[in-house]
Amino acid sequence: MALANAQVNGKWKQDHSEDENYDQMLREQGLGSCVRWLIRVFKPSPLVEYIINGEHITYRQYVKRNRPVEMNFTVGQPVDINIRGMEPSRAVVNWDEYGRLVMRHTKANGEFVTTGRIDSRGMLEMTMLLPSGKQCRRVLKRVQ
Predict the structure, then answer these.
(1) Which pTM was predicted?
(2) What are phi and psi of 27, to 5 degrees?
(3) CA 72 to the chain's CA centroid
(4) Which residues, in sequence order, are bridge partners of residue 11?
(5) What is the rounded CA–CA span in Å between residue 26 and residue 58?
C-alpha cells in the first residue's frame, strides 16, 4: 500500500483529451445543461492535490487559487460532505486489494464509485461507476 500512496500523492490536472462519458457524469452529479455546455467549451481543469499520510487522506481542489476546497478522510470512515451550492452527501474512502484508491460517494440519486490508479504512463486514471450503471473515465497529469 505504501507504493500506491506515494504514487497518488501530489498535484494533478485533468487531461480532457482522454475523457470518456464526462458529460454524463456531470449530468448525474446534477449540473444543468448550460453549465455542462460551458464545461465542454472551456474545459476548466482545476488543480487537485492528494496528500496521503498513513490512513489519513486530504483532497484539495484549487478552484480559487488562494482558497482550495479541502476534504479530509480517514480510510474506512464515512464523512458527511457539505459544500455550499451542492446537495449534502456522504463518502467513504478505502484502498482495494490491488492498491487502488476507492471512494464510494452517496448522493440523493444514488452511489458514485470512483477508483483511482496510476497507469503505465504515470497518469492518474479515475474511473467512476455512475448511479445509471454507466462509467466515466478521467485522466489526470502530474503537475510539478
Answers:
(1) 0.80
(2) -60, -45
(3) 13
(4) 49, 143
(5) 23
* Cα three-residue angle 86-103-57, rounded to 5 degrees: 90
C-alpha cell read off for 31 = 449540473
Q: What's the CA gap between 94 and 45, in Å, rounded?
A: 25
Cβ of 63: how many Cβ atoms within 10 Å? 12
- Residue 116 CA to residue 139 CA, distance in Å, equals 10
Identify the pLDDT of residue 81.
87
19-56 per-residue burial string, b: 16 or more CB within 10 A, e: under 16: bebbebbbebbebeeeebeebeeeeeeebbbbbbeeee
pLDDT reported for residue 6:
73
Q: Cα 138–64–129 angle (5° rounding)?
A: 25
Residues 115 and 137: beta-carbon distance below 8 Å: no
